[in-house]
Every structure is written in C-alpha cells, then in structure tokens.
Amino acid sequence: MSALSNIILVALGILLTLASLWYGQNHHLLPESAAESAPLFDSLFNSTMTIATGIFLVVQGVLLYCIVRYRKRRNDQGDGDPNHGNVLLEIVWTAVPAVIILWLGLASLDVYQAVYGGADVGGHIHAAMAMESSHEAEAGDPSYAYTPAVLPGKDMGQPDLVVQVQGMQYAWMFTYPDSGLVASELHLPLNKRVRLDMTALDVNHAFWVPQFRLKQDVIPGRETHLEFVPTQLGQYPIICAELCGPYHGVMAGQLFVDTPEAFEQWQEEQILAAHPEGKAVALASESQPSSAFATAYQQRLGISPSELSSLRLHSGSLPSAG
Ligand SMILES: [Cu+2]
User: How confident is the model at residue 248 (pLDDT cuts 50, 70, 90)?
Assistant: First the structure.
C-alpha cells in the first residue's frame, strides 16, 4: 500500500469515528428522560448507537468501495482474481464482534443491576403463594388470594411511597395503601423514591413508561416490582407493553409527577371525592373556609357559607385526608 492510501485510510478512520461519536449523542431517538435511573439506560443506548453507527459506516463504505473498484469493465470477460480466504481478516472479523458483544453484555448487566439492585424484579413464584393457589385449586375456589411479596435482597433504601398497581383488561388501577385511595391515574411526588407492587387480575400485562426507561411484566398470581425516583415534573403515558387482548392498544394510563404539595392536594381531593359523606366534614373543619380549595367544594356541592358555618361535625370521621 502506498503512503498516500495509508493517509487516506487513517483520515477515513478518524472521520468515521467522529461521525459515529456525534451520531451516538445526537440521534434524538429517545423521549425525554424523567427518572433518576434513565440516564444510565441512555448512556448505554448511546454507546450501542455509536458502535452500531461505526459498523454501519464501515460495512456500507466497504460495500460501496467494492462496487466501484471491482465493477465489470468494458471488454472484461474474466472472472477476476482467484481469492481463497484470508485468515487474518477472518480472525479480525470474528474477534472484533466478539469483544463488542461481550462488552455490551457486561455493560447491560451493570445497568440492570444499578437500576434493579440485583433484585428478582421479573417476579418469582413465592413458595407460599404457589401452595396457597394449589390449595385453592383443590378447594375449587377460582379466586386468587393476593399476598404481598417481600423484595429479595434489595438495597436501595426504603421507598418514600409504595403504590399497588393492578393491571386488568384494559385499564390500570392504583392503590395507595397509606391512605386507602384507589385511583385510575398514577400521581407521584417529585424526587421521592417510589416502589410499585404490581400484579394482574386476568392476563399478562406490562407496565411501561418510556420516559422513565422502565418496563416490567405484570402477571396474575405473582407480584413484580419497580423502584425508581421521578426527577421531572410532568404528565407521562403508561403503556401496556404486552399483547393482552383485542383492546390491548387502548390500555393506556396517565402518570403525573407532581410537586409534593400538589401531590398531597390531589390525594386529599381524591379522598374527598371518593367519600362524599366526608366532604361536609372537610368543609366544616377547613381552617380557612374562604380558601380556593374550600370555595371550589362549596360551589360544587352547592353549600352556602351560612350552611357551612352551621355544620357541627367533628373531623374525626374524615378518612385520613392529610
Ligand atoms: Cu394489557
């Protein structure tokens, strides 16, 4: 090879590396990231994208070069030079992908363990639950007794909030055990560690929030978990990522990341809406009856301020609204 073609080859290599690195960071294929662990996935994805771009450019470049360089020329009736293998080339194109695959595998494991803490998030059949369900089957009871599972060896610190998630054809249901609130929307406070304890009521579903880079199967008779910290205020779609029936495509929920204050207020409003008998109590016990919060409820319930002040109810019967 001449010195000139060596220089051209090195220059092409540098150009190709730069192009791959640039595209790996600027592909815009991912939605915004809104959870603490999302950047880990993103950096792994970007690295994969960088490598894939490099390989794509090399393969397409060599292909184009060969098409032009070894094209059939006029009056050329020959078959080209006889080539029989190239041991060095074969070693290189076996070793390079092997190293890449190995590295990707290890890096993926790293990210997986960082996000899921090495816990068996895929859900395992708990011995007790398996026994329980087999007893029920014997007894002819089709209903399944749901037992909360213990997270095996997960060391992420205690979550600030636990929400039970139930997937069913074709909706998501969220239960907040601390307040007893059941909602069709998932509201979470910003920058708090959340654990979702998930199960399905009928068939397999999958809980997927693309902006959080989290996806987890939701399975009847098992409990699976997700643990994460939402880091960006906003509204995000919850998508069912497991074909679960004819209306699987419409099985979508909404996830709201609220400020802690807005989260508390939402919870109070939901509890009030779910317990109409508690509304008058809440209004009567509201320390500032003229606040926007109370006023809204007065108007909605059609209670006049004089009626409100005549209410003599104690606040003890209000379900824990704060
Ligand atoms: Cu589903």
Answer: very high
| Gap from CA of 141 to ligand 1 centroid (Å) | 25
Is residue 223 domain-shared with residue 286, that is, in the same domain?
Answer: no
- Least Cα distance to 36 among 158, 163, 211, 174 occurs for 211
* Span from the CA of 179 to the centroid of ligand 1 (angstroms): 26
Taking alpha carbons only, the member of 238, 37, 216, 221 closest to residue 122 is 216
Residue 251, domain member (yes or no): yes
Rounded to the nearest whole angstrom, what is the distance from the C-alpha of residue 244 to the centroid of ligand 1?
Answer: 5
Domain that holds residue 281: 275-317
Helix (H, G, I), strand (E, B) or coil at 51: helix
The Cα–Cα gap between 139 and 146 comes to: 16
State residue 206 phi and psi, 5-degree precision. Answer: -145, 130
Ligand 1 centroid vs 95 CA: distance in angstroms? 42
Task: Please state, in angstroms and rounded to a whole number, the distance separating the CA atoms of residues 263 and 190.
Answer: 9
Distance 33 CA to ligand 1 centre (A): 23
List the CATH number of the domain containing 228: 2.60.40.420
What is the dihedral angle through the alpha carbons of 16, 17, 22, 25, rounded to the nearest 10 degrees? 130
Enter the pTM of the model: 0.68
* pLDDT score recorded for residue 78: 80
Residue pair 125/222 in contact by the 8 Å Cβ criterion = yes
